[in-house]
Prior knowledge:
The protein has helices spanning 2-10, 48-68, 70-88, 93-123, 129-168. It has 169 residues and is mostly helical. It has a domain at 62-169: Helix Hairpins (Orthogonal Bundle). Helix 2 crosses helix 3 (70-88), helix 3 (70-88) runs antiparallel to helix 4 (93-123) and helix 4 (93-123) packs antiparallel against helix 5 (129-168).
Amino acid sequence: MASTAISDVRAGRTISGEPSASMSQPAKEPRDDQALKPVNGNNGSFTLTGRLHSFRNAFRGVALMLRSQHNAWLHAFASICVLTAGALFRLSDPEWCRIILAIMAVWTAEALNTALEFLADAAKPEFHPLVKCAKDVAAGGVLISAVGSIAIGLLVLGPHFLDFLRAHF
């Protein structure tokens, strides 16, 4: 289905199948019955049911990321460890904010990386050096986020851990 939409666009047609304007043809204002319809599940209207469907789809996306990305498993394990340590050390509100922002940054980077990989594979299933570059850059973004989060974790949890060691050893 995605390949049909892509080939339609490459063939000079919009997603709805109407011819697109080219530089040699004057642009025409679409009539109401010719307007492009949103695709991929977005019907454009705001309803409570629509919002609930959006949440359901978002949770499906998180579940898909966890099923398909081994690094997401590592992020989940690290998140659980850091949250547990934070609870044991009774972090202050500002410390919790830093930890939660660090965790959120890594998960967001991983989700965007996963989405980019899926889109790149759909657009160009065979090897292409630019697709590889895009995937490598996106993975680099996850790495930057993870290293930054480790630094935040050490700065926030490190003093608590040292206090624990001093008190018990």
